[in-house]
UniProtKB/TrEMBL annotation:
Domain of life: Eukaryota
Cofactor requirements of the protein: Mn(2+)
Active-site residues, as the UniProt record annotates them: E348
Name of the protein described by the UniProt record: Histo-blood group ABO system transferase 2 isoform X4
Gene name linked to the record: LOC103670246
Amino acid sequence: MARLLRTQTGKTKCCSLHTVAFLLIILVLVLFGWNVSPVLWGQWLRAPPKPLQLRQGALASPSGSPSPAFHGDGWRALPGPPSSTVTFSTSFPSTGFPSLRSVMQGIRKAGAELLYPQPKVLTPSRNDVLVLTPWLAPIVWEGTFNTDILNEQFRLRNTTIGLTVFAIRKYVVFLELFLQTAEKHFMVGHRVTYYVFTDRPAAVPRVPLGEGRRVVVLEVLGGPRWQDVSMQRMVVISRFCKQRFLREVDYLVCADVDMKFRDHVGVEILSPLFGTLHPSFYGAARKDFTYERRPRSQAHIPRDQGDFYYMGALFGGSVAEVHRLTSACHQAMAIDQANGIEAVWHDESHLNRYLLDHKPTKVLSPEYLS
């Protein structure tokens, strides 16, 4: 509660020491630490940004040298990238401090709390599906979360999300639709870096980007088979986690390029480690999962074991956890290769083995890939 001070006449002098101190600190940071003009500050206060209206939904799936920097359509080159990297961006704060928008949202929340329906302990959000795993990880279904609450929590943390995608050889044709639909539906209102791994950097399309979102093009070599490309991403993601992802983003989402976003995919998916239920197997018995069944493979799972069958097209988590996952899968695939065996579903088989041994902290429903 607010603490009140009274003068000798008994009149209220100050309504809240906490609020005044908070506002003074913010003003000092803004006017001196961030070097923001008082005129711009006043203009921002008079015209605050409109709240984002997001929809909840699912994600759909159908089955040389760096290029010069693009200019126009909201794209620009950032200075000084490595020779094998091309970066395109719109306004992307370089400071480690919270953005002016997040600060102002915090100030507004201090005076007007977010209103939402009270959670009902005796009324489950869904009674037709499993919403909690036996190891107490939530399973994210439509109707089990409040987008407004989650968005506010992650905005106040100034969260940055990285989205990795591999567009090798002919698969570069899917990249434009992938990026266009991601701009409409993926982490709308949050800071996003698209990490595009490709052997054809000059073919990366120009897609208009929203505020605080950028594209980083990273040149890699392509394999002779799509299976090689699929397995290659584990070692590439593992290497770049150490080289740059740990410094640049808080979470990584790893997706296939031959997909398009159809509806809202937001911060409700974020967790230290998450996987996505395969839409063809979420109702099947474990003995019918297409796990690797040969004991010689490092991805082997016996028929009497297994929790769920996870699809390799969408997984992720914190950068540290994704680094552990991709490193372990790469090492397992290297052992298989030395033993002359290749898992039945390549990196997806090794992903399922890893998530059986290292339980995910969140599981996404098949709605995200149906």
